[in-house]
Design goal:
The chain is 8% helix and 49% strand. The protein is mainly β and 980 residues long. It contains nine helices and 53 strands. A hairpin with an 8-residue loop joins strand 41 and strand 42.
């Protein structure tokens, strides 16, 4: 009987099990983060019970559930826990959102990293997603408006042109104001221009002294740290990022057409009392050449990147290849670059990890029209009554007047099309960046990292001016040059980390050495038999030029240390010290020490904040530090001699004369900086604010000091000067809408900086130089004023004869520094469709439009004029005239007439993208197509091409000048991103 009962019980249990299993089902899916990267190790449980699993290395999972189990809970460290309904579903795709909205994000700082929540200094971050939204040739262009306190100016529209970057203002007169650029731990010489933007993982911008003092003698101008993409454990991926676009000139300037030109020219002849008219029969003028249209054309731009990443517990690697090609809108100009990158890290044992970061690039930059400026300027002043070619198909000599015996045209003017077709200028650049490191784990809390790297570059330039150009007569002119430079860096860093009780310590101690050497050689030749060979055979020129060569070398050795201390995760202290030794100075002046200190208080972690649920983060920061600037050039502390021709015994030879006097007292420029900041987050950090106030004072400012003639030298470089920068920075990041189908993120940055020169040698003014060969000094560096303020005369209308009138004394008439700059970005995503719009601008600054000296000189030099010259002074048009009388003898000075408000707002980027669903394609991780419009809308009162201009480039003190540089472009592009 008992045996039968046991048999019945077993049969009953088997029946129950069969019924249960028949009703169970399997749920599968994939978990991603906000950047569409799969997440391994995510915990998945059924709501209400402990049944669960975790995602594998590819972010995938499978889980068996019963009919009544319709909700899964997904949780992962650093991400918000999510509940997902599986009712009626067999497969789900889950995207987890960072639980602290970036506070647990790791930020790269000098020689290490730290959680964003533990930062004591002022650091701005720009992520790969922000850069990817802007198809540009260089990282600098992608930074515009993205970080508070960082000003970025695109110097011109030349393909591959560099940008001018300033962090918290201008610190030096002659010492340079470029920020230090660190790529994968190595301070590179060439800046950001040779790095493929698609290779960037993130960028950190160190702004206050607490962050930059660890770089000592090179930290005064801020530091930009670039981290390139690296391999990840458990993944093998192939990503393709490709786009193709069309560029057009963003704006045209209204010039006189042929009919207006004839009217203005004849009026000048009458006003000058000439014997006749330039155009006796205006109806005979049938040519109306738009020289700008002749020189400029729509042009393509394209970029193609393939990236391969792989990794396991031992080896992680990432390789990429990029091809970038940008044809210029100015014909026969362009920029082409190929870049190869490799990042590999291998764990050789439990105590040793080795890695290598390698970047190879080769670029070819082709200029047209003497860098573009000569062609552009002459295209603006050429007469529209002249054609490009004559009846025989030869270049028309536009300096000749075919209509009368009178001559009106500038005699040194070439046919602008000659600068396009008869001038060639090419620079081929090769760069090799390689950094190898070994990381030794000495104890669980102590590591030692040693690295050695090299930054090597060569450049070869070829330039040829055909005999058809005035500058190329009589038989053509050729130039060849080459340069080579390398920097070798060895870093040795000991890092200690430990947590004990309420205390946390992260300390580093390091010793670094760096050497730099560069050489160059150049030569020229002229008067060739033919133009066909260009600059390839200099020896064929009958008039060889004098060759030139030179070299430069310097070294730097540094001892550095930093301690980050935290108590109860509430009170944070950072102490930094760096001592630099530089070969640029004489003994006794070679060593300088740069300390800094910072304190932060996490108020939101205090017990009295527990009941304030809406406030998720509140941190107060304060820092102070001293940084330096290696503003002295190698050998500048020594006396120098220069070569000079001499005649000895009736023969011409070479001798030497004194060049510059020695100054053994030269030393570093130093900058003291104070920073006070607040980080504030609400609603689970879905809205985050950051505010900083800073004050910087640069002492021992280097300046040129005039010497009495009895000394034998005109000037000497001395440490006599002071300058200050003070300002405020504000940023806000907000996740406004966060739902299953709709997400809206926004960011806003606002920066304000005030620059003032405090002290100069004997209070004497410094004049940086003329704006062009028609304008005298237009800038001044004076105590109490912002650097390079505009200095000149104030226009006071016209006299009774229609001539310009000026107030008597020159004065300060403008400021090239903006009152404030801003950036405003919005990203809207509805299901698989996303829209990114980024707006950037600057307000309250002035521009000198230098070319107006030609384009608004009342035809005094025979150059074509701006169309506004039609509203000129005449006896019947006095009150409403905006230009003086048309005549050859008018007086024009550097004045307010040529200064304009440069304030602007640009819709920098509009990006519309669609993520193609890939859930049912196992071999496809992601797929996106997009269309991008860049620089399509600019709102400004400035009448030149673009208020975002710097004619003389980075390092020149003639700020805010527009000499009709290569015009900027607007671009529309289409692209695709695919991940396998």
């Amino acid at each position: 009987m008992k045996r039968n009962l046991r048999l019945l019980l077993v049969l009953f249990l088997l029946f129950i099990s069969w019924v249960t299993n028949a009703q169970q089902r399997t749920i599968s899916g994939t978990v991603y983060d906000s950047e569409n990267e799969t997440l391994p190790g995510v915990s998945i449980v059924v709501e209400g019970i402990t049944n669960g699993t975790t995602t594998d290395i590819d972010g995938r999972f499978q889980l068996t559930v019963s009919p009544s189990e319709n909700v899964l809970i997904f949780s992962f460290v650093g991400f918000e826990t999510q509940k997902i309904s599986i009712l009626g579903k067999d497969n789900v795709t889950v995207r987890l959102v960072s639980s602290t909205q970036g506070l647990d994000e790791v930020v790269i700082v000098g020689y290490g990293s730290v959680k964003k929540s533990d930062l004591t200094g002022s650091v701005s971050s720009v992520k790969a997603a922000d850069i990817a939204a802007v198809p540009v040739s260089s990282i600098g262009q992608a930074l515009q408006g993205r970080a508070s306190g960082v000003s970025v100016t695109q110097n011109s529209g030349i393909p591959g042109a560099p940008t001018t970057i300033r962090i918290r203002g201008t610190n030096s007169i002659i010492g340079g104001n470029k920020p230090l650029v660190i790529v994968d731990g190595f301070p590179v010489v060439g800046g950001l221009e040779n790095i493929n933007p698609a290779d960037v993982e993130n960028i950190e911008i160190l702004k206050d002294a607490s962050s930059t003092a660890i770089y000592g003698a090179r930290g005064s101008n801020g530091v930009i740290i670039v981290s390139t993409k690296k391999g990840k454990a458990g993944k093998f991926t192939v990503d393709i990022d490709s786009y193709y676009g069309i560029q057009e000139q963003s704006k045209k300037i209204d010039l006189l057409n042929a009919q207006q030109f004839v009217q203005i020219a004849n009026e000048r002849a009458v006003n000058d009392g000439s014997a006749g008219l330039y155009f006796p029969n205006p109806s005979d003028v049938t040519t109306n050449t738009d020289w700008i249209d002749e020189l400029f054309d729509a042009s393509p731009v394209q970029s193609h990147t393939i990236t391969i990443t792989a990794g396991n517990e031992r080896i992680k690697t990432s390789q990429s290849f990029n091809y970038f090609n940008q044809d210029g809108i100015l014909k026969n100009s362009g920029f082409e670059r190929a870049t190869l990158r490799n990042n590999t890290e291998a764990k050789m044992s439990d105590w040793l990890t080795v890695g290598n970061s390698l970047i190879l690039s080769r670029s070819d930059r082709q200029f047209s029209g003497d860098g573009g400026n000569r062609a552009v300027i002459e295209a603006h002043i050429a007469s529209p009554t002249e054609s490009v070619y004559d009846a025989d198909g030869n270049y028309n000599d536009i300096t000749l007047n075919d209509y009368s015996s009178l001559s009106y045209a500038p005699t040194a003017l070439d046919n602008p099309m000659k600068w396009i077709n008869e001038y060639s200028d090419e620079i081929l650049t090769t760069k090799i960046f390689d950094n190898f490191y070994g990381l030794f784990t000495l104890t669980p809390n102590l590591t030692f990292k040693s690295s050695i790297g090299v930054d090597y570059s060569t450049a070869r330039s070829n330039r040829y001016l055909s005999r058809l150009l005035l500058d190329g007569t009589p038989g053509g002119k050729a130039y060849r040059g080459s340069s080579e430079s390398y920097s070798i860096l060895n870093e040795n860093i000991l890092n200690y980390k430990n947590e004990f009780g309420d205390h946390s310590v992260n300390a580093i101690l390091g010793y670094n050495t760096q050497t730099f050497k560069s050489t160059f050689i150049s030569t020229s030749s002229s008067d060739f038999v033919t133009d066909l060979l260009g600059a390839e055979v200099l020896q064929d020129g009958s008039l060889p030029g004098v060759p030139r060569s030179g070299s430069s070398e310097w070294g730097l050795a540094s001892l550095l240390g930093r301690v980050n201390y935290s108590y109860q995760n509430k009170y944070l202290v950072t102490l930094t010290m760096r001592s630099d030794w530089s070969s640029r100075f004489v003994k006794g002046k070679q060593r300088a020490t740069f300390p800094s200190a910072a304190f932060a208080w996490k108020v939101s972690n205090e017990d009295f904040m527990n009941d304030i649920d809406w406030m998720s983060n509140l941190k107060l920061r304060a820092s102070w530090g001293i940084t330096g600037n290696q503003a002295v050039s190698p050998f500048q502390t020594w006396s120098s001699v220069v070569s000079a021709p001499v005649v000895l015994g009736g023969s011409l030879g070479v001798g030497f004369v004194p060049g510059a006097p020695a100054n053994p007292d030269l030393k570093w420029e130093t900058t003291d900086q104070y920073d006070f900041g607040v980080d504030f987050g609400i609603l689970n950090n879905s809205v985050r604010f950051t505010f900083d106030y800073y004050y910087k004072k640069t002492s021992d400012l280097l300046a040129q000091v005039n010497l009495p003639s009895s000394v034998g030298f005109s000037e000497i470089t001395q440490n006599i000067g002071e300058m200050e920068n003070k300002g405020m920075e504000f940023s806000i990041d907000a996740h406004i809408v966060k739902s299953k189908d709709l997400n809206w993120n926004t960011s806003f940055q606002l920066s304000r900086n005030r620059n003032k020169v405090l002290k100069l040698s004997k209070g004497a003014d410094v004049f940086p130089g003329p704006v062009n060969n028609l304008i005298s000094e237009f800038h001044i560096i004076r105590e109490g004023l912002p650097m390079s303020s505009f200095y000149g005369y104030v226009n006071d209308g016209y006299d009774s004869e229609g001539n310009n009138q000026y107030e008597d004394d020159p004065r300060v008439i403008g400021n090239p520094h903006p009152d404030f700059t801003f950036g405003f970005g919005n990203t809207l995503k509805y299901k698989n469709l996303s829209l990114n719009v980024f707006i950037e601008g600057a307000q309250g600054f002035d521009i000198v439009w230098g070319s107006k000296f030609l384009l608004r000189n009342s035809f005094s030099r025979g150059a074509n004029q701006l169309a506004e010259a039609m509203n000129h002074w005449t006896p019947s048009n006095t009150a409403g005239a905006t230009s003086p009388k048309i005549q050859s003898s008018g007086e024009f000075r550097g004045s307010t007439e040529f200064i304009e408000d440069g304030s602007y707002i640009k819709i920098r980027t509009i990006n519309l993208a669609y993520d193609i669903p890939t859930n049912k394609v196992s071999w496809l991780n992601s797929a996106q197509v997009y269309i991008n419009a860049q620089n399509f809308f600019t709102f400004t009162k400035y009448s030149g091409y673009d208020p975002e201009v710097q004619a003389y480039g980075d390092g020149d003190l003639r700020l805010g000048v527009d000499n009709n540089v290569y015009p900027s472009t607007k671009t529309i592009s289409m692209g695709v991103r695919v991940g396998f």
